[in-house]
Design goal:
The protein has 192 residues and is α+β, with helices and mostly antiparallel strands. It has 3 domains: 42-112, no CATH class; 114-145, no CATH class; 158-192, no CATH class. It has 8 helices and 2 strands, in the order H-H-H-H-H-E-E-H-H-H. It has helices spanning 42-46, 51-59, 64-71, 75-84, 86-112, 147-157, 159-162, 166-181, and strands spanning 114-125, 131-143. The longest helix is centred in the middle third of the chain and has 27 residues, at 86-112.
Length: 192
């Protein structure tokens, strides 16, 4: 057997004894963190709950500027909401497209003439104001084609064929091209 070097051998430590007490330590109370309730954003309060209303208003011809005033939202915030919330941007875009389609269809209907039903209700009263008789008359009517609307649609939908002055349109196009190239300052385009 080899002898161990006394410098290398570890010294034995005496065992520590713990006193047992009759008192039990109370358990730490379990504290639940209070749930953090997030406040709804301005978009969540002022715009999101009213998407269906906003769509109806836009389809009726209300502008976004008017909607900003009505819902008390700034124009820059409105634009930011459209950028950050695709659902909102899609709602506005679809409502505008539907409005445009409705307007074109209505303009076409007026230009071509259309039939409609007119209802007229008349009431007969005695001297004391009591209603004696109520009659309702229903008439089928026809609205004649509107020449002004026909002209408007043709000029604006097909300007190359029906413009009042095709040469003026060609000149405007050339002026815009020159302005884009920087030959003509944009300020001079006002009268063209």
């Amino acid at each position: 057997m080899k002898k161990q070097n006394p410098e290398i051998t570890p010294k034995k430590q005496p065992l520590k004894t713990t006193k047992k007490t009759s008192k039990k330590m109370p358990k730490k109370p379990t504290t639940k963190k209070p749930s953090v309730k997030r406040l709804p954003s301005e978009y969540g309060k002022k715009v999101e709950p009213f998407l269906a209303e906003i769509k109806k208003y836009i389809r009726c011809g209300v502008t976004e500027e008017q909607l900003c005033e009505f819902y008390q939202v700034g124009k820059t915030s409105w634009a930011k909401y459209k950028k950050d919330n695709p659902e909102f941007a899609e709602t506005v875009c679809n409502a505008r497209a539907e409005l445009k389609t409705d307007l074109i269809n209505q303009a076409y209907k007026v230009a071509m003439g259309f039939e409609y039903t007119e209802t007229k209700t008349t009431t007969e009263k005695d001297k004391e104001g009591n209603i004696l008789k109520t009659t309702e008359m229903v008439h089928e009517r026809y609205a004649r084609p509107d020449a002004g609307m026909i002209e408007f649609l043709l000029i604006n939908r097909f300007p190359s064929e029906f413009a009042r002055d095709p040469q003026a349109i060609a000149l405007r196009k050339k002026a815009l091209e020159l302005a884009e190239k920087g030959v003509i300052p944009p300020e001079q385009l006002e009268g063209i």
